[in-house]
Amino acid sequence: MAELSIDIGGLTLKNPVMTASGTFGYGAEFDDFFDLNSLGGFVVKGTTLHPRQGNAYPRMAETPSGMLNAVGLQNGGVKYFVEHIYPNLLKYNTHILVNVSGSTVEEYIACAELINELEHISGIELNISCPNVKEGGMAFGTSCPAAEAVVKAVRKVYNKPLMVKLSPNVTDITEIARVVEANGADSISLINTILAMAIHAESRRPVLSTVTGGLSGPAIKPIALRMVWQVYNSVKIPVIGMGGIMNAIDAIEFFLAGASAIQVGTANFIDPMATQHIISGIDNYLLRHKFKSISDVVGCLQL
Ligand SMILES: Cc1cc2nc3c(=O)[nH]c(=O)nc-3n(C[C@H](O)[C@H](O)[C@H](O)COP(=O)(O)O)c2cc1C
Asked: Which CATH superfamily is domain 6-296 in?
């Protein structure tokens, strides 16, 4: 086997394949399919300070080469996570990150403080795609001052690796990436879903209850690749890429664009074993192309 381990901002992953938040539950849902310790790491569902019911149904829809979702961060809240979910995670021997979301900076801080106490959680993935209710609902991740405020505040209370997940729904992803880096992020993950909508012509109604939702899957891969490449060329901290990765060759494209690790999202719904095929396929690519280590491939796109 080639050397698959890689460092991503304070975390050493045994291989560069993680799973994406919201597509992998709390891990246990996949226990019957494969040994989760084979993953470089996994990111659990979006967690908020208070419990959230999520949006009304329908909140998922299939689209050409993709899916739309508007789940709305349904979760039991961070206290429920600490009491009922965390104990089940202690058995795993891989990196587990908690994806943290909030509607105000104060909510993010309170959530991060509680997660800071959890020894077996390797880091936070800070989801800044949520609407900032105090500032008129614009997502934290779509304005530089809002991104700065939330990352700086969480950095002050959270002592372990902080990965910040960017929203693609911006004009210039590089300016947000630079702000996030300057305010203490250890790594950057991207992309979250792309704002989109679907319409049912016969009923003349939107398909989702929320009208708009987030697009994921192969349809967004070219956009995600472009953004990973732009961010890789704009910051020094490691980049974790995702968006439409269905197989090992998709993953390799992200490494070439500059990702040090990748996350698999929508593919988990189609094939629960997708990550396993991707890990072995990456190894196969490295051997075929005579790369000794995955780190040799990162950013080696030939222009
Ligand atoms: C059903 C669903 C739920 C999601 N929930 C979250 C979430 O709670 N937090 C988050 O940061 N991203 C969430 N995402 C976004 C994914 O983690 C990922 O960024 C996105 O789907 C792109 O990757 P993919 O094309 O491989 O799915 C969700 C995506 C889907 C499809």
From this structure: Aldolase class I (3.20.20.70)
